[in-house]
Amino acid sequence: MNRIHGALRFCEHGTWSRVTRHRRHQSQVGRDARPFRMAVLGSGPAGFYGAYKVMQGIKNAMVDMYEQLPVPFGLVRYGVAPDHPEVKHCQEKFTEVASSPDFTFIGNIKVGQDVSLKSLANHYDAVLFAYGASRDRKLGIPGEDRLNGIYSARDFVGWYNGLPEFSGLAPRLDLGDTAVVIGQGNVALDVARILLKDVDSLRTTDITDHALATLAKSQVKRVRVVGRRGPMQVAFTIREVRELMKLPSVAFNPIDHNLLPPSLTDLPRTAKRLTKLLMEGSTSTLAHAEKSWSLDFLLSPVKFLAASSTGSQLEAIEFARTKLAGSNPFDPAAKVETSTDHETVPTSLAFRSIGYQSEPLPGMDELGIHFDTKRGIITNDYYGRLLSSMHGLDAERPLPGMYCAGWVKRGPAGVIANTMEDSFATAEAIIADWDNKTPFLGGGDGWETLKRESLANGVRTVSWEDWLRIDAAEKARGKALGKEREKFTNPHDMLGVLD
């Protein structure tokens, strides 16, 4: 079975043996007969998958998971679209991991602020950095940071999913009938789908109530998803585009067939399926549909243009036309060249969706951790072992006991199944290093000691039992509204459940 397909089945449908009762291929305690203690920074898929694998592979392993929000699950809770509940099934598996007496969840604590990285390094055998990507990439063009009506896709997704950071976003969806999404990945198509979907079909999901109210007033009838390259270089997956093609009363504007290969025979299986889907188009026709969307290719944004009447509201986007370089325009890796020809697209609403980026944590430099700001990842040996900034990038000398997994390890790409496989690979490196008596950190009592320090500093942390109370309260709020849950969008309200 393909490893990624197997991983996906494992995430959505598999059954995990409880880590407290059964571990396969466990390494021996070794060294001295004390537990192996690991701190995990981040409670999303990368953190939970890494914790699970290490707890399964090292006898008497104890994991403390640190999360800056009072609630767990990271990208699964705040990044997965509300109409994709099946993708969130892995939360059940994470809950199994958290039920182990060898696992401790510490929520509502900021590493680097409430507790220093140096303190963590002094009280654990290992630290696993798995905190994901906290900001989006910018286009860097005029008007981007000045005009109203321009939003980050990450902010918009966080807003409708209840991420506290973006609860006050209040996007104006009522100023015009056309939205432009810059970028052609899965997140871009998520944004398009939420804008075009019948709002009533979202009412039973866990989308926030304030998002439903705003979407109900939306005037958007057309969404243009724009990319610099062609249809053979898109980053979205078959599933995402198929959903848009099947939306009731939403039509797809056909692609110029000159941009597609004349024959599909020699294409790889996935590319062939995707191209065929794009050629077939939507089930609804433009003549009868209430809304429409398009994939606009070979356009690179140059500047955002303001409305002359206000000077502060987006009115249009100026694009430069591009062309695919090289002899084969259907090569997935084909690059583009920018021409002097420009095209102006009128719109009062735009979303940039060109990728996420991780950021360094305070205190990394002090520990000799090198963060690659250009790539937005912690420098590592591709197996998840952190490389020291003190020895230069070519020395490849791992930092004892320091590891990374997920987006902060490889960059923001792939689906949850990719993250699982990636985290398992890092966990296997940790297990191998422990077995081989590779140097680690000095060990200690982990959170048992740091808890006293945090309490003395006035930090109010959230335990797993506390989270279960917040979880129950959200489900009760949702039940009253006829939906799965209604999330709290303010940490103060989350903590209020515990008072």
Rg from Cα: 24 Å
Distance separating the two termini: 49 Å
**What proportion of the residues is helical, as a percent range?**
25-40%
Mean pLDDT: 91
Give the amount of beta strand, in percent.
15-25%
Outline the biggest β-sheet.
6 strands, mixed
Tally of contiguous helical segments: 15
Protein structure class: alpha/beta
* Poorly predicted segments: 1-25
Shape, please?
globular
The largest sheet has its strands arranged as 3-2-1-4-19-18
Write down how many β-strands occur, each being a DSSP E stretch of 2 or more residues: 19
Description of the molecule:
This protein is 30% helix and 19% strand. It has 499 residues and is of the alpha/beta class. Strands 3-2-1-4-19-18 form a six-stranded mixed beta sheet, sandwiched between helices. Strands 6-14-7-8-10-9 form a six-stranded parallel beta sheet. Strand 1, helix 2 (45-57) and strand 2 form a beta-alpha-beta unit. The model is unreliable at 1-25 (pLDDT under 50).
Structure summary:
This protein is α/β, with parallel strands linked by helices. It is built from 15 helices and 19 strands.
Summary tags:
6-stranded parallel β-sheet, alpha/beta, 499 residues, disordered N terminus
Q: Which SSEs are present, and which pair or pack?
A:
Elements: H1 3-12, E1 36-41, H2 45-57, E2 61-66, H3 74-78, H4 90-98, E3 103-106, H5 117-123, E4 126-129, E5 135-136, E6 150-152, H6 153-161, E7 178-182, H7 186-196, H8 209-216, E8 222-226, H9 238-245, E9 250-252, H10 269-280, E10 291-296, E11 299-306, E12 314-324, E13 336-346, E14 349-352, E15 356-357, E16 371-372, E17 377-378, E18 385-387, E19 398-404, H11 407-410, H12 416-435, H13 447-456, H14 464-481, H15 491-496
Helix pairs in contact: 1-12, 2-12, 6-7, 7-9
